[in-house]
Amino acid sequence: MKFNIKDTFTKELPADPILENYRRPVHACYSYVNPKKTSNPKLVHASPALAKELGISEKDVQSNKFLQIFSGNELVPNTTPYAMCYGGHQFGNWAGQLGDGRAINLFEMEHQNKHWALQLKGAGETPYSRNADGLAVLRSSIREYLCSEAMFHLNIPTTRALSISETGDQVLRDILYSGHPEYEKGAVVCRVAPSFIRFGNFEILMARDDKDTLKKLTDYTINHFFPHIKSGSKEGYIQFFQEVTDRTLEMLIHWQRVGFVHGVMNTDNMSILGLTIDYGPYGWLEGYDEGWTPNTTDSREKRYRYGNQINIGLWNLYRLASSLMPLIEEASPLEAILEGYRDSYEHEYLKMMKSKIGVYSEENKDEDIILINTLEENLHLTETDMTIFFRNLSNIDKETSTKSTFLATVEDAFYSPEELTDHIKEEWNTWFNMYLSRLQREDLSNTERRKRMNLVNPKYVLRNYMAQLAIEAAEKGDYSLVEEMYQLLLKPYEEQKEAEKWFAKRPDWARNKIGCSMLSCSS
Ligand code: AMP
Ligand code: MG
Predict the structure, then answer these.
(1) Which of 207, 224, 236, 358 has the most crowded Cβ, counting Cβ within 10 A?
(2) What is the pLDDT of residues 64-86, one digit of tens each?
């Protein structure tokens, strides 16, 4: 196994001069630290699709060398692993230095003109571990591993996952924060992205008044990841902020499209490249509910609920804007970009929602907004499965559907059909009539429209209970469900006849089960 090593972060940015591994404030961009050795690593799964992108052969993936490197036991020659320094706003408050508390970057590499950073999550203590152990458990690692790859195949910008291994070591966790910690199986995921830089990497430098390093980091980020922008100038920094804003919004619109709720949109969990990053207590909407969040830590305020993600994106961009202020020294261009976010949001959101219902022509915008708003209100009338509703909506026939068949088309999406009172049925009829007449004004045939709708409305998503089933089996040593989910989610928009059981509402047993409905940050 040979990697074309191309380290840039450590080559171009200031390092922490201290090499010992103890917790401390670090006045630099990163600290050198090696992964912890694991006692008995075992490969749970590896992503053939990503291995190929990195030029790793199938044979190499199965090798002992692969396992040793990507569980943290062996270093690739001439590499110098490191943990990054960043800060962040957590739940709206400045939290000071955070940093890679349990992530260790192994190296950067190039393959077929693409640049990648490979990092281990759960690989042991770093100077940024604060009061925690630097480890990760199998359950949260499976969730991160499966979801990163699932998001990628949904065409959503995300960090990737190359492999997941059990470490053979035990990790103590108190899942419910109830004062009863228990030992669980430890695991390590190898994550992959062009870069893992976050908003928080910039925030910490601004907070410390370190303009010199801030400039170095910003120029580095522009030169490597936004090469069409000229670094070193005020105009370049403004353009950089504009592009980060655009990418962030684009990512969030995708989340809304598929019903993904991140759960912890702190600024340290916002990638500067607009990638979905740090899969913790995330979840997928089952019943369409704008107020839903899977994160138990946020259950009171619900700051990071589904319906608030776009607003939080803007809030986080304000934090990034103030971090870049020392370089730009003028607020108005940044304010203009942030104000522009609102307009773009309305435009992009409407476009996305129109694509979900198969309406494309530009007619009367206000009427289309009413059509979408009314649909969203109706989806809240009784518990209605988001994924099933939109997928089955494509079966509406604009020539032959009528009042008597509207609801039958989407009935599989209703969790309690008996709750559909006459009044609710009437609300739906009114909407379907509006919808049908809108479809009749479109040129597309039913078949064409269905095809296009099915490219944006996934048939399969990683429902919370599905991940939980894979986890429970894996904890008993059976990885077959991890493989089944992985294979299923490679083609989320395609019909997979043999997988019809995963195109179903959440079963009743999963409604209030930990891991299926609510998740804590304990991982
Ligand atoms: P998160 O909420 O997972 O985004 O983590 C917030 C911060 O806590 C980051 O700096 C993480 O690296 C750190 N962190 C989370 N879990 C652990 C752990 N088990 N050991 C050390 N640091 C951790
Ligand atoms: Mg994080």
Answers:
(1) 358
(2) 999 999 999 999 999 999 999 99
